[in-house]
Amino acid sequence: MLKLLGWMVLLAATFGAGYYVGQHPIGELRKTVGELSRSLRDTTLGIERTIRLRQGLVDGKAGVVEAKSELLDKNFGNAANALAQAVENLEKASSVERERDAGGAQKVRPLLAKVREAQLELSMGKPLPRAKLDEIQKELDGLLAQ
Fold first, then answer.
1. Residue 113: which of 131, 136, 97 has the closest Cα?
2. First to last CA, the chain
3. Region of residue 129 (phi > 0: left; psi between -120 and 50: alpha; otherwise: beta)
4. What is the spatial distance between Cα 117 and Cα 49, in angstroms, rounded to a whole number?
5. In sequence order, what DSSP letters do the residues of 31-87 get, joined into one string?
6. Quick one: residue 102, left, alpha or beta (phi over 0 = left, psi -120 to 50 = alpha)?
């Protein structure tokens, strides 16, 4: 009895598949598969760009936090180096953002200018208020929360 039921299910599935292929020509199926693969590729690339952007922002934030720590220890040279690393990471994030948004609103560029300015002040030996780095860190947190 079980064999008979199995054969009936197999025949019904075969008939259903044949009917579907008969109603939808192979060219249409190839077109549908092509559209699905393009959609999947675009989605995957979008996710990869988003991850690279977030990684650049996180690495930039790490540099800012390290610079704050070095400022507390009065190591101004190390703080300037940490900010230089943060600038490098934010530049990578900015290039990914330009790639991803293609003419959209640039959010990393103004922040990048602030970090460059702070790094320049430190490298010239000028005192840098900790509040400025706190403000930069809050802006980075805001970008990461989006």
1. 136
2. 60
3. beta
4. 27
5. HHHHHHHHHHHHHHHHHHHHHHHHHHHHHHHHHHHHHHHHHHTT-HHHHHHHHHHHH
6. left
Residue-wise pLDDT for 3-49, tens only, equals 889 999 999 999 998 888 788 777 777 888 889 899 999 898 889 88
Distances (CA, A) of 52 to 34, 95, 96: 27, 10, 7
pTM of the model: 0.70
SS3 97: helix
What average pLDDT does the structure give for the chain?
Answer: 87
Q: Are the C-beta atoms of residues 27 and 96 closer than 8 Å to each other?
A: no
